[in-house]
Every structure is written in structure tokens, then in C-alpha cells.
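Hi support team,

I submitted a single chain yesterday and got back a structure, but I'm not sure I'm reading the C-alpha cell output correctly. Could someone confirm the output below corresponds to the sequence I sent? I've pasted both exactly as they appear in my results page.

Thanks,
R.
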Amino acid sequence: MNKIFIIFFSLLLFSCNELDLGIPNYLIIEEINVNDNTTANITDAWVYVDDNLIGVYELPANFPTLEEGVHQVRIRAGIKDNGISGTRIPYPFYSSYVIDTFDFNSNNALVITPQVSYIENIDFFNEDFEGVGLDLEITSISDTTILKFNNSTNNYGGAILIDSLFNFELSTDELSDLPQAGAPVYLELDYKSNTQFLVGVYVNFPQSVLQKDLLYINPKENWNKIYINLTSAISEAVGANSFKVFISMQRDFALDTNSIFFDNIKVVY
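Hi R., thanks for writing in. Yes, this is the structure output for that exact sequence:
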């Protein structure tokens, strides 16, 4: 008799716990789009309910939530900082997607399609290769130059091809208004390549120039977008007059031709 009572009581307690948990809703976020015709590589959705973070979900995402009734939902676009899977962050220059009155209905799959844009009051250095001439410099250590190409969608980009020479390096124009004190600064870059290349910063002090090598980028067969965090390099350079972001490549002799293709070189701050 005691055993039967214990089993009955356990089942009742289990049922009550199940009822207390409620029936989950499922939120579905297939992708997050940037609505100003810019390229993006948004990998994650940072989801907040009433300004409380409930989770970070790799896209496409389908996840449960026990929220009920009407709440504010805010979604931030997440990226891989420096292209590294272990450093996922909400990109500071994309706006949040907000639904002020989102109705959570029990036992339903609720689809959200976020649209974000660049936040207001930010600045850009941008080279998209569409205009006449380039706002880029081929540095003195480079023994080759950048070529302009037209792809199948009638958009222009830049190409570097090395088969007999040894070095290539380009830089932005001097950037004298980059913020410091920890304010975010990023390089956005669309690329594909069959060889490794380096991204860094030249820091121009009144009496000297300091070269900071930041990130080696591995080959990608298909077009990829990467967000490179320049914040520390810029903020640590107290007393600098200006900066130049550079991209450098040395010939890999294991390849007949070293090739890098670029588009949308953008410093955002």
C-alpha cells in the first residue's frame, strides 16, 4: 500500500511540475536582413524580451520560450568578431529590431523576420570600387598594383594577382577622426582569396609611424564578409595624429598565382 501511495504521489508531483512549466511557444527567425542594400554576414540573433536577454541563437533559429501574453521583443544582429566562432557579439553599428507589443500565443510557432540598418550618427570610410578612381593607396613596399574588375552582376571590385612578383599592400587614406577611449571601430571587408593575407593599422604619431599587425585572414573560395575589430588598436594609440588601415599579402610560392578579390572595404566608426 505504501509503495502504491508513493508512486501515485510521485506521478501527481511530476504532473504538477509539468503544468507549472507551461506549454512553450516556438520562435522562428530564419535570417536578419540589412535594409539599405549593403552586404552583411549576420550569423546570430540576440533575443531580448522586455530588455532581458533570453538567448543567443545561431541562424536559422527555431527555439522555445515560455513567455505568455504581450511583451516587447528586441532582436540584435550578431556577428563573429574577427571571423572567429568563439567571439560572437551583437554588432554595435546595426540597429535593433523592436516589436513593442508582441503577442505570445501558447503552442504556436511564431515567425519573426527582422530588418536592421546602420545606426544613426556614425561615419564611414568606404571604397566600393564603383566610382572613378580609388580612395586607396598602394604603399611603397608593394611591387604590384590593384586591378578593377566587373563581375557577373555588373558590380565592380578590386583584384590582386601575383604570379611573378612578391609583395602587395594597400592602405586607406589617412583617417584623422577615429574615436578612441574604447569607442568601437571596425573594418568591414568582402573578399575571396586563394592565399592568406594580413590586415593591420599604421599609427601615425608626430615623429614616427607604428605598424600594428592585427589579423591574418585565411583563404576563402567563395565570397565572404568579415568584421575586423580595430577598437583596441585605435584606442591604445594615445597621441596619434591619424591612422591608415592596411591590407598586405606576400607571395605563396606553392601557388602558381596568388589571388585576392575585394569589395566594399569599409571602416565604420
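A quick pointer for reading it: The chain is about 10% helix and 50% strand. Let us know if anything else looks off.

Best,
Support desk
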